[in-house]
Amino acid sequence: MQTALQFGPVLIHLDRLLVGVGQTIQLAVLSILFGTIIGTLGAIGRSFGPRWVSWPIAAYVELIRNTPLLIQLYFVFFTLPLIGLKFSSSTAAIFALSIHLGAYATEILRAGVQSVPVGQIEAAKSLGLSSYRIIRHVVLVPAVRAVYPALSAQFILQLMGTSIVGAIAAEELTAIANNLVMETFRSFEVYIVIAVIYFVLVQAASLIFAGIGRLLFRWKS
Amino acid sequence: MSLRDFGPNELMFLIMATRWTILLALIAFAGGGVIGLAVAALRVAPLPPLRWLAAGYIQFFMGTPILIQLFMAYYGSSLLGFRPDPWAAAAITFSLNGGAFFGEIFRGSIDAVPKGQWEASTALGFRFLPTLRLVILPQAVRLMLPPTVGFMVQIVKTTSVASLIGLTELARAATQVNTVTFQPVLVFGTVSLIYFMLCWPLSLYAGYLERKVGQGLQVKMKKPLLLAS
């Protein structure tokens, strides 16, 4: 039995791994973008909307946060074709990932919105600002700032969460790793390399989020 | 088109598979809790190399996807000469992974205990471990309880990933039933409901504990003011 680790057969496929990295980043970026949009609207609706808006949002948040992402992926992947929507695996994955993150982002941003003092909103009202400008400048900006660390931690979880979309045959880094295992039979080496790549991605992402945070929220509170 | 319909037998199959989800979650909780305690102790240990070791451990398990960790345990075992076994791989991975998250949770609670408690214990002649066990941890437990229960929800949901290395728990049972019935709405709807019934009570309990601890802290903060007056 051959027990020595051999990384050569894995590393000659570096080009394919890099394609996988690109696909993983694409999945993460797009789903973070859509998820944050869902979360922003959700948090506003949950905080300021009438009951018929805020209750369904609360139900959505609880349902998503108390079921596994994998089941959400399967649900989207197998159910959407039934109602006539034919998507590629990648699109279905982005769809499910966005809905998943949307629930977490709603909950995080809602906490941020609640941290904004009522007096601040009343002051904006008495200054005659429109509802849009109040929500945009007086509520959302300090809200996002207050919960930015929690939000970026969730984004990083999302980046790692993309690793399971191979289950619905979507292409990304882990799925490519699984293919390489079948071709090279160097299973352990492949996953070590993949683990290192994810680790670097996660560290890079947290640096980038910290940098964005410093750029966006430079003023003193 | 489908081989059979989603009926009582299929429902029973899913419910029986839930046992394995619960068992794996309990293993992860117990193993992760014990490892987490050790990791947290190392993380606040007086020797810097021990702290770095624990920090590296946490960094690895929190900085890579659990699916990759599962694959590494599954295929790594064959490298060590064992036959790959999904249950062994899942039990080990979920315990080690849970240990990292619990370690961070516990350390956060330990850090929240005032420094004076450490100094007072040292002054009374307590060594590191007795201080931690007899003085710090009893005070930290109240703070670590809400995030611990919250993380249990996370564990239950994450066990579904073990289906991808071939462990037949709820998520894998769901895909099997879906393959023969092809009624995804019914199958995955039912499975979502089962997961929801496992997780939601825990989520509610975690939220309740959080509010309770929050109130406790407020009371604590008021007390010195009363003493001063």
From TrEMBL, chain A:
It is found in: Cell inner membrane; Cell membrane. InterPro entries: AA_ABC_transptr_permease_3TM (IPR010065), ArtM/GltK/GlnP/TcyL/YhdX-like (IPR043429), MetI-like (IPR000515), MetI-like_sf (IPR035906). Gene3D superfamilies: MetI-like. One of its GO terms (molecular function) is transmembrane transporter activity. Residues 21-209 form the ABC transmembrane type-1 domain. The chain crosses the membrane at residues 25-45, 83-105, 146-170, 190-217. Its main location: membrane. It is a multi-pass membrane protein. Keywords: Cell membrane, Membrane, Transmembrane, Transmembrane helix, Transport. GO terms for cellular component: ATP-binding cassette (ABC) transporter complex. One of its GO terms (biological process) is amino acid transport. The keyword Disulfide bond does not apply. Belongs to the binding-protein-dependent transport system permease family. HisMQ subfamily. This is ABC transporter permease. It comes from Devosia insulae DS-56.
Automatic annotation (TrEMBL), chain B:
GO terms for molecular function: transmembrane transporter activity. It comes from the Bacteria. GO terms for cellular component: ATP-binding cassette (ABC) transporter complex. The keyword Transport applies. This is Amino acid ABC transporter permease. Residues 18-206 form the ABC transmembrane type-1 domain. The keyword Transmembrane helix applies. GO terms for biological process: amino acid transport. Its main location: membrane. It comes from Devosia insulae DS-56. The chain crosses the membrane at residues 20-42, 54-75, 87-106, 185-208. Keywords: Cell membrane, Membrane, Transmembrane, Transmembrane helix, Transport. PROSITE patterns: ABC_TM1. It is found in: Cell inner membrane; Cell membrane. It is a multi-pass membrane protein. Belongs to the binding-protein-dependent transport system permease family. HisMQ subfamily.
